[in-house]
Amino acid sequence: MSYSQMKFLKSAIWTFVFVFTASGWAQDGTIYPLENPEEPNAIPLGTGDVEDQPAQETWFRQWGDPMARNIITATLTPFLPDPEKATGTTIIVAPGGGFRWLSLGNEGWEVAEALAEKGIAAFVLKYRLHPTPESLDEFKDFMSRPMTPPAESQGEGEASRPQRPRTNLENQLEDAEAAYTMIVERAEEWGVDTNNIGMIGFSAGAGLTMHSALNSQTMDLAFIGPIYGGLNEVEVPENAPPMFNVIAADDFLFNGEFGLIESWHKAGISVEFHLYQNGGHGFGLGNPDRTSNRWFDAFIYWLEVNKFLEAGSEE
């Protein structure tokens, strides 16, 4: 993987530290334990477990949304449209959480339901996560620890930056590839047009979406939609898919960075970019009175204009 691609992934991963710490500043961000919910439609992907993970999957609620951590078994949950509305278009949905938890409510199930209402077969990918402390109190303490400067330079221009957690996305990419393979294998059952499978992700899920588009040897994505992910420049493969990208100007990940968009544009690959006035980070389908609330409508229109909602379409 190139330095620029690793830099992109680091920005996605670092999201969880800022979001979790900032959430403690407001009463709404109080974290409550949550009993693990039933997931009757979740299909195990059979990609194995997580090495050196002693804890079991547990859930919590924050900002009113259910979130899971210490996920050791990857699953795929289908949200299929009414057959009379079905277009054949299919989207893998990757929630965010810095690869330490998954915001399965506002960045997973709610998005998948909205897509299904538009005739799109949506599949929420519950991918494996890096370990966090077993108890919720220890988890909160772990996530609120301050960053420490690196002992030595990590590369040109990075000597003065805070230490960012290293990452390995082998498990997550394997889960995404297994999800794609399962969808293709069960395409007839689920009404999937195999020429028209895309992927969208939020925050760290946007990072996984980008990682899949840049590195997977098995996924043939028709389009991608990284939503409020990092925007560092990358090396774009010749067969890269068209991209729809969204971020808010007041998102701490933005910082005036357009490298990813420029990379796609210079590579001659179709790209649409929406920089919204406000919305912050982690807004999912939207928060009250923010301009970013219209991104989902823009995304559906982009799919329509590019004929991704037509059976057998392929740019």
Describe this structure in words.
The protein is of the alpha/beta class and 315 residues long. It contains 8 helices and 12 strands. The protein has helices at 3-23, 105-117, 136-143, 170-185, 187-190, 204-215, 259-266, 295-305, and strands at residues 32-34, 43-44, 58-62, 65-69, 75-79, 90-94, 101-102, 121-126, 197-202, 224-227, 243-248, 271-276. An 8-stranded mixed β-sheet has the order 2-5-8-6-9-10-11-12, sandwiched between helices. Helix 1 runs antiparallel to helix 6. The radius of gyration is 19 Å and the shape is globular.
Using the alpha-carbon principal axes, give the shape.
globular
Number of structurally distinct domains: 1
- Measured on Cα atoms, how large is the radius of gyration? 19 Å
Order of helices and strands: HEEEEEEEHEHHHEHEEHEH
The average pLDDT is 87
Query: Superfamily at the CATH H level?
Result: Alpha/Beta hydrolase fold, catalytic domain
The low-pLDDT segments are 1-27, 147-165
| Strand order in the sheet with the most strands | 2-5-8-6-9-10-11-12
